[in-house]
Amino acid sequence: MPTTPLQLLPRDALIAQAAAVFSLPAAQIQRPCGRSRSQVKARELAALCLRRFTLMSFPEIAQALGYGGHPAAMHAVRQAARDRDLSAAAAVIAGRIGNPTGSLA
Fold first, then answer.
1. Closest Cα to residue 68, out of 42, 36, 43?
2. pLDDT beneath 70, residues of the chain
3. pLDDT attached to residue 103
């Protein structure tokens, strides 16, 4: 069965798109500046995108998103993966970044 090659997506673009889903600036989810529901969900979505669409490790994800350590990044990825809406949003983000023209070819 042929497999498609892994397509790595740019870290900053993934973070910016995850923040945009919740109408937040990217800088607001790259540091621990609040625990509102939208900030937490945006940070979880960014963590899920970074894990799925880059080769970043959990410690690298934790550093990029201002988590205290890699266990917090692992928890965020697990939470986001369980949330159907966030998982669907991650797929949409990857589609936008991976195919910015929106064409199907």
1. 43
2. 1-7, 99-105
3. 40
Q: Residue 9's pLDDT is what?
A: 87
Q: In the chain, what are the domain boundaries?
A: 11-97
> 30 and 59 in contact (C-beta within 8 Å)?
no
| Residue 3 phi, psi dihedral angles, 5° rounding | -115, 150
Q: What is the 3-state secondary structure (H, E, C) of the chain?
A: CCCCCCCCCCHHHHHHHHHHHCCCCHHHHCCCCCCCHHHHHHHHHHHHHHHHHCCCCHHHHHHHHCCCCHHHHHHHHHHHHHCHHHHHHHHHHHHHHHCCCCCCC
Angular region, 66: left φ>0, alpha ψ -120 to 50, beta rest? left
Q: Can you tell me the distance from the alpha carbon of 44 to that of 41, in angstroms, rounded to the nearest whole number? A: 5
Residues in the chain: 105
Residue 104 confidence (pLDDT): 39
CATH entry 1.10.1750.10 includes domain 11-97: yes
